[in-house]
User: Which sequence fits this backbone?
């Protein structure tokens, strides 16, 4: 098989892990852990994306966590501190944060829309997704129960 044929193979090497679905980000009600910082998580079985809106003057305090994180700026800009390496990030910029590496971000006069990708899913956001969803559904973990398809306004998971 060529690389393309291997990459786009339709031959399953196992059983489907669950049912796929579509999510519209605007249907997820943002939750703020700190003022001006809105989180909208979408949860899969082994990964998570979190759409994050930074209002002008918002700050995600410097922190660490066990999950690997990839940050992708979609719109606007913010200042990012990656273990003391501080840069202004703009659309198209990406930061890769291994587990337990200190990091934080803030906006000044502008806003920023960015996406965080977590692997495995970030535990504190799983709790948020569960609170927003209000019930467990298929596909959030090894036992096949956890935050699931959310109604409009809830967190979404696979």
Assistant:
């Amino acid at each position: 098989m060529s690389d393309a044929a291997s990459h786009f193979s339709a031959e399953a090497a196992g059983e489907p892990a669950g049912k796929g679905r579509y999510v519209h980000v605007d249907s997820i009600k943002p939750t703020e852990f700190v003022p001006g910082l809105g989180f909208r998580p979408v949860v899969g079985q082994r990964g998570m994306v979190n759409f994050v809106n930074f209002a002008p003057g918002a700050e995600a305090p410097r922190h660490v966590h066990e999950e690997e994180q990839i940050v992708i700026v979609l719109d606007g800009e913010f200042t990012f501190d990656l273990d003391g390496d501080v840069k202004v990030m703009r659309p198209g910029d990406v930061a890769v944060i291994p587990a337990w590496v200190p990091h934080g971000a803030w906006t000044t006069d502008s806003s920023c829309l960015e996406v965080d990708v977590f692997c495995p899913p970030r535990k504190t956001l799983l709790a948020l997704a569960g609170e927003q969803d209000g019930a467990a559904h298929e596909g959030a973990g090894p036992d096949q129960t956890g935050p699931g398809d959310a109604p409009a306004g809830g967190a979404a998971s696979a």
Observations:
- DSSP finds two helices and 13 strands in the chain.
